[in-house]
Amino acid sequence: MSPEPTLVSRTEESVRVDVTSLLAQLVAIPSVNPRGQAIPAETAVATFVADWSRRNGLDAWLEEVVDGRCNVIVTLPGRDQSRIVLLESHLDTVEVEHMTVPPFEARVDGGRLYGRGACDAKGPLAAFLIAMRDLARSGQVPPYSVVLAGVVDEEHEYRGVTGLLASESLSAAREVVGAVVGEPTDLRMVVAHKGCMRCHIVASGPGGHSSRPWGLVNPIESIAEVVTHLASDVVPHLGDQAHPLVGPPTLVTSMISGGSGPNTVPNECRITLDRRTLPGEDPHNVWAELRAGVEQKFGDRVVVEEPFLVDLALDTDPADTFVASVGAALSHVGRDGAPIGTGWGSDASKLAAVGIPAVVLGPGSITDAHKPDESIDIDELTAAVEIMRTVLMGRVTYGMEGRNLGGSDASPTDR
C-alpha cells in the first residue's frame, strides 16, 4: 500500500507567498457593505473566489441572497461525505472614508499587509482557501467533507449567514460536525461572545422660535437628561453581572440627532443605544426592562422605540468534541488552545442557534479591524493556513458526532 500523500514539500515560505498573494487580490476587489442599498457589493469578490477555487481543484458556485448580492460556496469532498465541517467568513467590509492607507491596493510593509478587509475578514478567508487548496493538491482526503461559505452582509444585518442556513449547501449535507467562523482573533479560539440590542430613544416637543423658548419642552434637553440618567443610574449597575469569558454587559449612547436650524426650538431629538448582551440574556427582555425604566422616569416626554437590531450571544460548550479538537489542533502547532471570549459579535452565534458547535478563529487582531490603516500580520496569516490544515485533516484525533440541522431542537435562547 502506498503511503498517504503529505504536505512536507510545502515550505512555510511558499505558503507565505501564496496566502499573501491571494489576500492582496481579495483586498483589491471593493466589497463595502451597502447598508441596505440595493447594490451587489460583494458579488465581484464572490465571483473571484469561485473562479480561483475552480482553477485550484475545488468545486464552487454562487448563491444569491438579496439584491444580486451573492454568497460563494466552495467544497472539498471528505471520506465521509454525509458529514461536513463548515468554514465561514464574510466578504463585506466596512466603509473606507478617512482611511490613511490606500483601501484597495494591499500594500505590504514591515511584515504586514495593509488595506480594507485585510484582517476583517478577508485574511481569514484567504487562509481557509489556501488550506483547502493545499489539501486538494496533496491528495489527502479529510475525514469529513469541507464546505467553505464566503457570505454577505455580516457588517450590517447578517443576511448572508441567514441565507446560508436556508440554502441547499447545508441542508443537503444535513449533518454539520462543527463550524469555524473566520474573524481576527489573534489565532485564539473564541467560544463565547456578546450579543447586542440596538434601539432609538426619541424625545418630542411642540417646537417654536428660539427667541421665545419659555414654556416649551426642548427635546434636546430631554434627551440630555436621558443620557445622564443612563450613564449615572443604569450603566454602573451593569457591572453587577458578568460572564466568565466575556465580562459584563455594556451600554453606549452611540449616535444623536436633532434640530432643524440654529434659530428653532427643535421638534425632536433622537439617540441610538448599543446594548451588548451576555450569553443567557434575551435581547428583547433587555429592551423591555430598559424601556420600563426610562419611561417610568420621563413619562411621555420620551419614547423608547422597538429594537431595530438584535443579535444573539455565542456560548459554545468548550467540552464539545469538535470544539475540543480545534483547541487541540492549536496546541499541536504550538499555539494557545484555551478557549476565550470577546465583547464583539459574529456569524457564529447564528450557526450555534441551530445547533452547530461553532467557534471563531482567525489571523489578525480585532484592534486593527475597521481602522483607517487596517492591516494584518503576515506571519499570523501564514500560521493560520497550517492551523486550518490541521483542523480539517483531524491530525489531532477526534470522534465527532454530526449535528442534524433538520432535527435540532436548539433555539436561539438556548444557545
UniProtKB/TrEMBL annotation:
It comes from the Bacteria. Pfam families: M20_dimer, Peptidase_M20. InterPro entries: ArgE/DapE_CS (IPR001261), Bact_exopeptidase_dim_dom (IPR036264), Peptidase_M20 (IPR002933), Peptidase_M20_dimer (IPR011650), Peptidase_M20A (IPR050072). Residues 191-298 form the Peptidase M20 dimerisation domain. Keywords: Hydrolase, Metal-binding, Zinc. PROSITE patterns: ARGE_DAPE_CPG2_1 (PS00758). GO terms for molecular function: hydrolase activity; metal ion binding. Its cofactor is Zn(2+). This is Acetylornithine deacetylase.
